[in-house]
Amino acid sequence: MRRGNGRRSVRQNAGFSLFEMVVVICSIVILYMVAEERLNQLPAAAERANFYAVLEQMKTGVNFEMVTRLASGRGDEIRALEGSNPINFLIEAPSNYRGEMEQVTDAVEKRNSWYFETTSGELVYVVGGSSIEDVRVVTGGVPVNLGQIRLKLTNVYDQIRESSPAPGSAPRGQGTKGSGNWQALMLLPVREYSWERSPEQPIPVGGG
User: Fold this and answer.
1) Rounded to whole angstroms, what are the CA distances from 10 to 3, 13, 14, 80, 132?
2) Residues with Cβ < 8 Å from 131, sequence gap 6 or more?
3) HEC profile for 13-57?
4) How many CA atoms lie within 13 A of 178 on its CB side?
């Protein structure tokens, strides 16, 4: 029997080199950082979407109530709705609505919620903790992070009011002190505000 030369071709399995391991670890770290940043943005994005969804529902409810009363010849009743609770025009109140209150002292503990302040006739949204830095309210001409957005049902007229309105309190060219012809009942921001998606993509004042 003829024997072989006794040599065998043995394939050695080489492991990862140090460079390859460093590349893999760096890639994992980068992917984790990107994923973590995206996940951290989800609560704020969900809150912003919910806020504007509820806001649009209230505006629709106010418009429906206004048209209904005008159609039935009860136009004078609409003006009396100024400063009333716009939540009442919804079929169902939002799950994060706290009700009507004279004064709130625990707003910090009850973030991401609505309440109606009876003393001022204003609907208040308390911004969630993950969104405070994104929401700016103009007070004294300076945008600040107050942590609240205030809205109010307001009668709008076709003449500019005698005194200058607070920024965002009424559309330009319209008044809210009873001068001129009555135009509509609108849910308007008490103070100008903005809710920014990112520094590069701001949301217009009072809009979605």
Assistant:
1) 18, 10, 12, 94, 65
2) 43, 44, 47, 48, 112, 195
3) CCCCCHHHHHHHHHHHHHHHHHHHHHHHHHHHHHHHHHHHHHHHH
4) 3
- Residue 114 belongs to what H/E stretch? strand 113-117
Nearest to 83 by CA among 153, 150, 149: 153
Query: How far, CA to CA in Å, does 189 sit from each of 127, 153, 176?
Result: 15, 9, 13
Domain range summary for the chain, segments of one domain joined by +: 18-195
Say which residues have a Cβ less than 8 Å from residue 127's Cβ, sequence separation at least 6.
47, 111, 112, 135, 147, 148, 149
pTM (whole model) above 0.85 = no
Helix/strand/coil for 65: helix
Tokens 């919910």, residue?
50
pLDDT in tens, 46-87: 899 999 999 999 999 999 999 888 888 888 888 899 999 999
Q: Which two tokens stand for residue 143?
A: 């945008």
- In total, the chain counts a number of residues equal to 208
